[in-house]
## 1
Amino acid sequence: MSGNSHFDDDDFAKEASAAGGRSFDEFDCPDCSANNVNVENFSDGDEVRCMYCGNEYVARISAEGKLKFKSA
Ligand SMILES: [Zn+2]
């Protein structure tokens, strides 16, 4: 029995507005496919930077919660 229903990141999500307030703290780089983890919490419209190739992207989160990127 391991109930992990306790999430601590409610405070981080309060500035999220679009896409139902969904936010992420990791992503796969669309350019070099690197898995960026423990990045600063981001949500729809925020810019993220790949820590491997250095490219910047604008995060787009669909209504279904799917994460996509556009070149910044
Ligand atoms: Zn990259």
## 2
Amino acid sequence: MIDLHSHILPGLDDGSPDLAMSLEMARLAVADGTTHMACTPHVMPGVYENATPNIAEAVQALELELYRAAIPLTLYVGADVHLAPDLPDRLRLGTVPTLNGSRYFLFEPPHHILPPRLEDFAARLIGAGFVPILTHPERLTWIKANYDVIERLNTLGCLIQLTADSVTGAFGRTALYYSEKLLDEGRVDIVASDTHGASRRRPGLSQAVVAIANRCGEDEAYNMAVKRPDAILQDRPLVPIGKQSARKSGGSSAGRFGGLGRLFKSGAL
Ligand SMILES: [Fe+2]
């Protein structure tokens, strides 16, 4: 499986504090069936001053340590990008990294406050040739009163990323409710771990993938954990699932768990 959202790089944000933790996170991810992972530290002006050069350098350093420790996890450069007025310019200049240099980037809106004109801002980013992937909308506290904003962002062309722990219920009932609503409405493009450590918010997608397969069918679970993340890393065009015509919901009728083996073994690509 391919995990496009992780805070595995040591010392860059509120994720892994040191190399030992990063290696343990990588081991856990691999044991759970993750083969490829985007390293996406927060980029938040004034709080986490990360940018492409220091993120790329940290990815290279961790790649070397993974090689030394014989942990088969392929890493990619990325970022968990927070709202900033100069974001379109910084993306264009390449100082804020997209996912593996593609048109796609993780876009994390403020957790507790809906910024005014968020849709206009997203439209500007899309107009500039980028595709924002809205991170875990199901966890935003303002989703309750503003679900229509999420719908419109999706219609505009933003992709949607669910967090694995939301789908399994680990983030509580509200996050689970909106995960299932978004899944049932066919709006979810990818699932990712957003891992921050080896115990709390640990890596791994398999439990969420099983839950998604039960709800939406195995094919869609595969699309969210392998096929679309792969297309994103390769910068292939993707139409947000929420913009496509009606998609089936409900579990597949036969072999609900049987086909999932392909997700959990190494080399799913
Ligand atoms: Fe994150």
